[in-house]
Amino acid sequence: MKALLLCTFMVFSFAMIAGCQSAPAEKMVLLDEKINEIKVSKSEGFGEINEDKFLSFNDRKSIAAFEEAITTAVKQPGNADISKPEYDIAVEYKGDLPSHGIHLWLGEENKKSAFMYITDESVYLTSPEVTIKLRSLILSQ
């Protein structure tokens, strides 16, 4: 009986410890397809993409930098209560696939940037290192 009680206590303890460990951070996702082009435009507001692009990236190095920035951005708790986005990003895939529309708030040097899918209110933050790469791509053009 004592062994059964001890065994039950241990199972319960392990379950509690496992349940208390933090879940992995939720990150942005893109289609598992080849990206053909990244288009950047000045944003006109939430929920839509400004089709009047001022930058276009189709070289592998730039696309890889945007892909890394987007897929490593970590979801923040709650919904957005922030100002109008600065930029709109359209991720265009090869073939006849729909594009991903993403809003971008470009952070200051050594600060985090923020992304948001155009169809959602969740905010995803990048690292300051990613902001440096995004700033060099967007502001140096």
TrEMBL record:
Top-rank taxon, per record: Bacteria
Xref: InterPro entries: YhfM-like_dom (IPR058780)
Pfam families listed in its UniProt record: YhfM
Position of the signal peptide: 1-18
Key words, A-Z: Signal
Residue stretches making up the YhfM-like domain: 33-138
Protein name per UniProt: YhfM-like domain-containing protein
